[in-house]
Amino acid sequence: MITIETLKQLNFTRMYTLGRLKQSSEAAWDTKPTGYNNNIRWNAGHIFVSMEVFVQKALGDYAPVHPEWIPLFVTGSNPDAWGENVPSNEELLTALQEQSARVVAALEGKLGTVLAEPMVIGPHSMETAEALVQFVVWHEGVHAGMIDGLNRVTGA
């Protein structure tokens, strides 16, 4: 049975993520401590881009917002390779704040949508929009935890 609970979890997770980001000092956003692959800015952008990409996979007619950010924040990217066109803290915070309502509206009534092609990560296969959204909520929680850890390490 498909419920709206998945979308409630999406909103709850985003609230937590935004709380961690609002605790981050300006300087901490671009600090990459020893032993870390990325910084707070990368994690914030990665959360945004991942949600856009996964929702597009779930709903083929969904057009990602800020597609120009995808190369900056996709899995495997790194802030060491960035040029000058990196979104500011404010741009990322605004994008993240606006994203959840837009995504929830796009997904309402469509969680049962069967993916054109299952999304497979290792041994795990996701075949519906709801399964993909549940994954992206878990994924965001992982990166929100990284942001929290980076805040602690950088003294944010």
Overall body shape: globular
Judged by helices, strands and strand pairing, the structural class is: mainly alpha
Order of helices and strands: HHHHEEH
Strand content: 5-15%
- Largest sheet data: 2 strands, antiparallel
Secondary structure layout:
Elements: H1 5-22, H2 40-58, H3 70-73, H4 89-107, E1 114-121, E2 124-128, H5 129-154
Antiparallel strand pairs: 1-2
Helix pairs in contact: 1-4, 1-5, 2-4, 2-5
List keywords for this structure.
mainly alpha, two-stranded antiparallel sheet, single chain, 5 helices, 156 residues
Nutshell version of this structure?
This protein is mostly helical. The protein has helices at 5-22, 40-58, 70-73, 89-107, 129-154, and strands at residues 114-121, 124-128. The chain is 55% helix and 8% strand.
General description of the model:
It is a single chain. The chain has about 160 residues and is mainly α. It is built from five helices and two strands. The chain has helices at about 5-20, 40-60, 70-75, 90-105, 130-155; strands at about 115-120, 125-130. A two-stranded antiparallel sheet has the order 1-2. A hairpin with a 2-residue loop joins strand 1 (about 115-120) and strand 2 (about 125-130). Helix 2 runs parallel beside helix 4 (about 90-105) and helix 2 (about 40-60) runs antiparallel to helix 5. The chain is globular and about 45 Å long. The termini are far apart. The mean pLDDT is about 95.
